[in-house]
Amino acid sequence: MKIGLLTYYGDLNCGTNLQAYATYMAIKSVYPNDIVEVIPFHGFKPEVRPYKSFNPASIFRDIIRIQKYKKFKYEWLNIKSEDPIIGNVETALRYIASFSFDRIYVGADTLLELDRIATDGLSAYWLKDIKADKILIAASSKNVTYENLSSRQRDEMEHAVRQLKYIGIRDSATTKLLSHFTLPEKIHHVPDPTFTMDIDRDITRQYLEKKRLNIPSKSVFMHLYGSDAWADGLTKYFKSLGYTIVTPRPYKFSDIVLNDMGPLEQLGIYGYFELVITHRFHDCVFCLKNGTPFFVYVKSRKTFMTADNDSKHVSLLKDFGLYPYGFLGCVDDSICIDNISERYHLLIQYFNKEEIKARLRELRQEYFNFLNATL
């Protein structure tokens, strides 16, 4: 059998590449005697560019990072052919169909989102009318709601959902959306594939040794937007307490900048910090896997939150009993950091590492239970 994985990869985001790799390896493990391939296709252009910086050293590190990600795509995702960007949906569907896959898994990440297409309809990731067994596995539509769909989108979505052999959804917001088009018992919650990954800590250790870099135990990792107005106050607070500020991109307040990491190097870096503050979903997942407490926030309520205040970040926190303790809120809601000390101590109380380890094992098993059920 020839099996395709339709997923998002190829940008400079650690999480998107590792979810692709985790899904690919999981599918290969349950189909050891079949052909399994990542479909070399992009529905939109992956973002591959250096961070904003006028520092030559930082730009040089960015170039190293870009090369590491290209190597990761080639060596770990096994994509050795051209992977075109096809924005036209019909052209993209014909291209995907040309591979003649018997079965196609779609996931994970927010592939089912609609804000990246220019036309009134569905993106190619919904695989409407593609002839193959089509299976969603930990897929997400991000903030798409039924109420905001056009009549054409509702018709096309109903048609596409009827063609799915199995429906595995990553978050409650997507479950709510698809519940309008199929019976609830046909929708299964499937954890993010990165929960199935084991961390090779030697890869991270070798990275740090090569850089001759020692990360102090009293360090905070901050993955922020450059436009976050409250960032200065937050970093000043932690620096006043003697913390080292480590960031994955250059900021004026950074003590250590790690913008030359490859995906597998970054996977284990979260275990070196006392606390992580981020807006990234997979940063949160990797913190959980490394046993590191974290705060997460979202940049825009409109972009990342549904009308009933749900999001993939909130769903993840709830799944581990960390909501609302680990949620800072939305930046456009005037995020408040005045009581960060109190919130941190409260977070620590609820961040039970043994319970988190047990939940991680459960989620790994849940993922493979669903995958095995699709055989």
Q: What do these coordinates show?
A:
- The chain has 375 residues and is an alpha/beta fold.
- The protein has two domains: 206 residues, 3-Deoxy-D-manno-octulosonic-acid transferase, N-terminal domain (Rossmann fold, 3-Layer(aba) Sandwich); 163 residues, Rossmann fold.
- It is 39% helix and 14% strand.
- Strand 10, helix 9 and strand 11 form a beta-alpha-beta unit.
- The radius of gyration is 21 Å and the shape is globular.
Task: Please provide a brief summary of the model.
The protein has 375 residues and is α/β, with parallel strands linked by helices.
Topology of this protein?
Elements: E1 2-6, H1 14-30, E2 35-38, H2 56-75, H3 89-97, E3 103-106, E4 133-139, H4 151-162, E5 164-169, H5 172-178, E6 187-189, H6 201-211, E7 219-223, H7 231-240, E8 244-247, E9 256-257, H8 263-267, E10 275-278, H9 281-290, E11 294-298, H10 301-304, H11 312-319, E12 327-330, H12 340-350, H13 353-373
Parallel strand pairs: 1-2, 1-3, 3-4, 4-5, 5-6, 7-8, 7-10, 8-9, 10-11, 11-12
